[in-house]
Design a protein that fits this description.
The complex is a heterodimer of chains A (269) and B (210). Chain A has 269 residues and is mostly helical. Chain A is built from 11 helices and no strands. In chain B, α2 crosses α3 and α2 runs parallel beside α4. Classes of the chains: A mainly alpha (269), B alpha/beta (210). At the A-B interface, α1 and α5 of A face α1 and α2 of B.
């Protein structure tokens, strides 16, 4: 565990720079787009996680806006968590595993590393946004509904935007879903090459665009696809939490089963 | 220390890389494994070390079955193929990081190990800037770390100059005692004959002479 925290995080802090950079870009872009409203912290956060409306392929006016920063963040996250454990197992990590005398301990340590990396990435986003909103308004978390309507194009009439709902939809749910996805992805990389696991999850992220269905997990990462915002057309928070917890448990448990029997052989062999 | 391989076979993607291996390795001896590329030497080392599970048969270390009673031999040092290194650490930091897992080796012991191999423990150069031979020596130092009872060295003389070969040879001989099993592979038959007490000859995944 100490090895993964030191080698995989502390001595590898530069891995958080892209996410800090993306958050800066997002905040600056919001400041420039909505000069008349100084965004509150909640607006920055909702802006980041707002997502896009599903594409109506049957409609006359097919429009699809690509949420570039949102997309880059999640693609980067899939890259980060997919490669370190595999590379580690191929080199120094196998020695650590042998010295530690346990395959399961090695896997659990990687799961904890994975969780710390995901949570820290989210923290980077929130801290940058907190800094921006503090400069403008002080730490003000109540979102400006009008601004959200302008950002998302979705009517906020009758939508309750209490800070707790923002926390649920833009902090708890995305963090848990990301944890579930990254653990399952890491587990998949024990069965197939990490690059393929990476591709599967990128396809999953991109494939969510057209439909708002509860089985497409990335819908839970988009604020405007929640039933709190779009009513019964949206995905339910409780379902999202359940899926996330199941994915976390499955990722860890299947990984334990697989690592016990996995042959540790390098690519070259 | 006693290592036993009982009817060990390993099948990878339909290819039999180890075929019914039966061998007993006892403490106090240096065993040399010889064979051409693809004869199964490295795979046998992997199976003994616990990195690879046997498809059939069992590997028993001091009465404990790998994969059943233990995940890996309890006291093992290993150099298989390329040394496992963290490239942006110095040589000392690599060894310190590995030693931190069990925390039974102090800094001075690591320094002495590096000095024995003619490496400077205070060298601030990152391993990625080391020559192949220096990387190999760090890999050898990692294997010797914590004075393991089972020492596995797969082609330890790769990339080493003649002086370093002599040093490593000397270290291996000096390391031999009644409790320790040392297994070495090498392409050079003469070198292996001089170093080892017993030679195991492998061909196409089988032991043909022991």
């Amino acid at each position: 565990m100490r090895y993964d925290i030191k080698n995989g995080i502390i001595r590898n802090l530069q891995m958080f720079i892209p996410v800090i950079f993306l958050s800066f870009c997002h905040c600056i872009s919001m400041d420039m787009s909505y000069k008349d409203h100084h965004p509150a912290l909640a607006n920055y956060v909702i802006g980041f996680f707002r997502g896009v409306e599903p594409i109506n392929l049957l409609g006359d006016d097919i429009r699809f806006e690509i949420p570039v920063i949102w997309l880059l963040f999640y693609i980067y996250l899939t890259y980060l968590v997919g490669h370190y454990p595999y590379k580690d197992l191929d080199s120094f990590g196998k020695l650590v595993m042998i010295k530690g005398n346990s395959r399961v301990k090695w896997w659990i340590s990687k799961c904890i590393w994975n969780m710390v990396v995901v949570i820290t990435n989210y923290l980077c986003i929130y801290v940058v946004m907190l800094a921006f909103s503090t400069v403008h308004n002080g730490i003000f978390i109540k979102p400006d509904k009008l601004l959200i309507e302008r950002m998302s194009g979705v009517s906020m009439d009758g939508v309750s935007l209490k800070p707790l709902i923002v926390v649920k939809l833009c902090v708890i749910l995305p963090v848990l879903i990301s944890l579930g996805m990254s653990l399952v992805q890491m587990c998949m990389a024990l069965f197939i090459r990490p690059v393929y696991a990476n591709i599967v999850f990128i396809i999953l992220i991109l494939g969510t665009a057209h439909e708002c269905k509860e089985y497409l997990i990335d819908n839970y990462l988009m604020f405007i696809r929640s039933c709190f915002v779009v009513g019964s057309d949206g995905v339910r928070y409780s379902v999202g939490i359940t899926i996330a917890i199941c994915m976390i448990i499955i990722g860890i448990a299947v990984g334990i089963i697989k690592i016990r029997r996995k042959d540790i052989i390098t690519d070259e062999s | 220390m006693k290592v036993e391989l009982k009817h060990v076979s390993k099948n990878i993607k339909g290819s039999m890389v180890l075929d019914d291996i039966n061998v007993e390795l006892n403490g106090g001896k240096i065993y040399g494994i010889q064979g051409v590329n693809g004869s199964g030497k490295t795979m046998m080392m992997r199976v003994i070390s616990g990195l690879v599970r046997a498809s059939v048969g069992e590997v028993v270390i001091d009465g404990k079955i790998i994969g059943k009673d233990i995940s890996f031999p309890e006291s093992i040092g290993l150099l298989i193929e390329n040394p496992g290194l963290i490239m942006n650490y110095t040589g000392f930091e690599n060894l310190r990081t590995l030693a931190d897992v069990n925390n039974i080796v102090d800094d001075e012991e690591i320094r002495n190990l590096l000095r024995k191999l003619n490496l400077n423990p205070d060298d601030k150069k990152k391993v990625k800037k080391y020559s192949l031979g220096m990387k190999q020596k760090i890999g050898i130092a990692e294997a010797f770390l914590e004075n393991p009872d089972l020492l596995i060295l797969d082609e330890p003389f790769n990339a080493l100059d003649s002086k370093s070969v002599e040093i490593v040879n000397g270290m291996i001989k000096e390391y031999k005692n009644n409790d320790r099993v040392i297994i070495v592979t090498c392409h050079d038959k003469q070198m292996l004959t001089e170093l080892c007490d017993e030679i195991i000859l492998m061909e196409e995944g089988k032991i043909v002479e022991a």
